[in-house]
Amino acid sequence: xxxxxxxxxxxxxxxxxxxxxxxxxxxxxxxxxxxxxxxxxxxxxxxxxxxxxxxxxxxxxxxxxxxxxxxxxxxxxxxxxxxxxxxxxxxxxxxxxxxxxxxxxxxxxxxxxxxxxxxxxxxxxxxxxxxxxxxxxxxxxxxxxxxxxxxxxxxxxxxxxxxxxxxxxxxx
Length: 172
Hints:
Layout: H1 2-7, H2 18-35, H3 43-66, H4 76-92, H5 101-135, H6 144-171
Helix pairs in contact: 3-5, 3-6, 4-5, 5-6
């Protein structure tokens, strides 16, 4: 019974949206706090990464919106395999130094593979939200907060990886 009580603010169609807004604001505040130290990499680099991320997300969203219905929704299997590869590479970077051949290759898989993966995930999530909106009956409440958190997290992951690519290019 405690599981039911713990998840009631996140349940779609809940009449009281204030707890959901508070949980979302807490999530966004925590992410902002965790991203804060990355802003010390320098203003122009962070600005460029933000512009690249914005252009990439805008283009991907436009592509997903104009694509034939449910074209990208069939990518769930390859996305899961990509998640496994990028996750394994991300864990391996903690143990392998990026200065070695193997460590450098694993780091490249984690960073560049992450950009490809989260770009594909953005296409999938955008079409999923469009499908949810179209199929939700008019008498039910559509929950835009829960639907958009995945896109928000994909955007943050793209920004972090693009910033990492720009930062590694600056060191050379």
